[in-house]
Amino acid sequence: MSKNFEVKQAAVADIKAKFEQAKSVVMIDYRGMTVAEVTELRNQFRKNGCEYAVLKNTLVKLAAKEAGLEGFDPYLNGPTAVAFGMADAVAPAKVCKEFIEKAKKGSIKCGMVDGQLLDVKGVEALASIPSREVLLAKIMGSMMSAVSKFVYVVEALRKKQAGEEA
Fold first, then answer.
1. Which residues sit opposite 54 in a β-bridge?
2. Which one of 49, 62, 63, 132 is most buried, counting C-beta atoms within 10 A?
3. pTM to 2 decimals?
């Protein structure tokens, strides 16, 4: 076996492992971005717990096939960068969408969540979902609101009864 073949096998295995570990994946076309913009995008991904890499389409196709993921082939044309959301499923889509809107360069190709392929509209819809922390805060706020109202009603009843008895 040639050294180059072994290197490619290792790369495919690495990409496959990332596909299997990631909660979500977003693929983008980074054409038109400057080195500074790509660096800023990488930093945004890193801050949000995502792994970002520019990968060869053939290696991504092989890794996806080995991981049992289908449907990526039509999207793997031209330059492709892949963002793997390891901690938060929404983070890669949100970072991509915000960055592309701000820079007005690049485009989302496709994505994946829980083994389900998403087109551009699906990735944009995923990006509009609030983060886990925001959703938990909203749930807690709703629960606290109901508890607070209950306490106020009980307190008002207690005061009313105390006022009538006195």
1. 81
2. 63
3. 0.76
Q: For residue 82, list its beta bridge partners.
A: 27, 53
- The CA distance from 153 to 103, in Å, is 52
**Roughly how many angstroms between the first and final C-alpha of the chain, as a whole number?**
96
Helical pair 91-103 and 120-127, crossing angle rounded to 10 deg: 100
Query: Which of 30-39's residues contact partners 24+ apart within 8 Å by CB, and which partners?
Result: 30/54, 30/79, 30/81, 30/105, 30/106, 31/78, 31/79, 31/105, 31/106, 32/105, 32/106, 33/103, 33/105, 33/106, 37/103, 37/105
Whole-angstrom distance, CA of residue 144 vs CA of residue 111 = 36
- CA–CA gap between residue 100 and residue 121 (Å, rounded): 14
Query: Distance (Å, rounded) from C-alpha 141 to C-alpha 63?
Result: 43
| 44-81 confidence digits (pLDDT tens) | 999 988 999 999 999 999 999 998 888 888 999 999 99
